[in-house]
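Allow me, if you will, to draw on your knowledge of protein folds for a short while. A protein sequence and the structure tokens that stand for its backbone fold form the material at issue. I would ask you to consider whether the tokens describe a fold that such a sequence might reasonably adopt. Thank you for your consideration; the sequence and its tokens are set out here:
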Amino acid sequence: MPSPTCYLLLNPSRTCHRLLLPSPRLPARFARLRVSCDVTPQGSDGGPKRGVIPTGAGKGKKQVVFFDAAPPVAQQGGEEEGKVEVQTKVDGAALRFLRRATKRTLSVLSNLPLAVAEMSAIAGLMALGTVIDQGEAPSHYFEQFPEDNPVFGFITWRWILTPGFDHMFSSPVFLGLLALLAASLMACTFTTQLPMVKVAKRWSFMSSGGSIKKQAFSESLPRASIQDLGVILMGAGYEVFTKGPSLYAFKGLAGRYAPIGVHVAMIFVMAGATLSATGSFKGSVDVPQGLNFVIGDIMKPKGIFSVAPDVFNTEVHVNRFYMEYYDSGEVSQFYSNLSLLDLDGKEVMRRTIKVNDPLRYGGITIYQTDWGFSALQVKKNGEGPFNLAMASLKQSGNKKLYGTFLPLEDSDPSKSSVKGISMLARDLQSIVLYDQDGKFVGVRRPSSKLPIEINGNEILIEDAIGSTGLDLKTDPGIPVVYAGFGALMLTTCISYLSHAQLWALQDGTTVVVGGKSNRAKIEFSDEMNRLLNKVPELISVNEKTVDNKSSTA
């Protein structure tokens, strides 16, 4: 606030008898200034007489006191103003520090070697995830990577389970690297790509022929018009701008935007992968033909963002399971006919699935992944049929082998060994039978309906009941990943478009032309030569008259 000023109004025509000023109590830091004051006593001639009151005169002398600084209105108000000023300085310093820290962080994140290292680390972890079995029980890793016999002398199960490499693509290390790479891409976009686009969009005219000739491509066109050049460039797809004798043209600006699109697409891919790893459900089930299961009973969340949808209440019924075979007898394809039932038991969908042809419903995908042998329907001496459960027998390699056992009535149950008929099968099309002594008896197909006699008993194979192996999952990140990859392919192709810039200046009858391109520089030079050859040459009236006379003669 402005300092108060003490004004003394003196009327020369009247006598100044008395002037009273308040005496404020001021701190010692406010110095006093004593000044003289003119008074007007009545002289003998009745006119005014000027006099000076010296400093330190008697009581009859009048004094006016000025101060070199304004006294504070209130001590409390001054303190508040001081606090506001200090707070403003603190806020300003904090803002400057935040700006410097942000700039420094963006500079570090946008470093190209750092981004390359991040992508290399992600690629290495992905390769490692294909080598290490994923999603197995801890006991599996205890056996594969024991502490008493480490792989390569130092890799034990602790190296796998502690960082979460048994679920590589949802481990904190992998997701953290994805987040760091996304931050690097965004930092590069803001610090490098966006400024380059702003510069490319700016109309920059050159008013000096020397500057134009310093470009990667330059040429001088005598007897040419800059307007004719602009028309030809517009016909070639250039955006042309003129300002007086100067011209600026460009094309292929989309190529400057493409790197930004590539970065955004990569971020979409990584965001979709992260969403898949942290927000999906997955489950596996083996269901014999004719039985049901509820989807929600087998689905397990894979991350902290997994939310169960209402479709988890849907029930799945296996109507039929069957297989196709090669001529050699090997399994070629297997099928499952499935029905989806709502809470009221009403069928909402029915479909046959096979390998690489899944069922999709309400965001859930059901894959045909495996098969098994559930039971064997057998008649014994016309009685039955009896359902004999088939057990999976361990065998080296990927070959499957199932077996069951039919006890005989004359065997003594008190003995440790019970005699009966053994049945083995590699698939659903043929059953191998052995008698109670373990001797081979014969082979029967379930569809043949031919009985076979074993140890005085007539055995008939009625049917082979298979079981379907199904994998179910919900993956909300798949649409995001697909969209990201689609955008990545599109923007990658667009990034190959050349961004060409051209400047021209009309210098008398000569047009000075220069330009540059960020890629395909040889093709750009060839294009410029071809376009400049199309610029017409100006002919003066005198030259035209001479030419006409020459042709007449």
Observations:
- Residues 75-109 form the longest helix (35 residues).
- The longest strand covers residues 457-474.
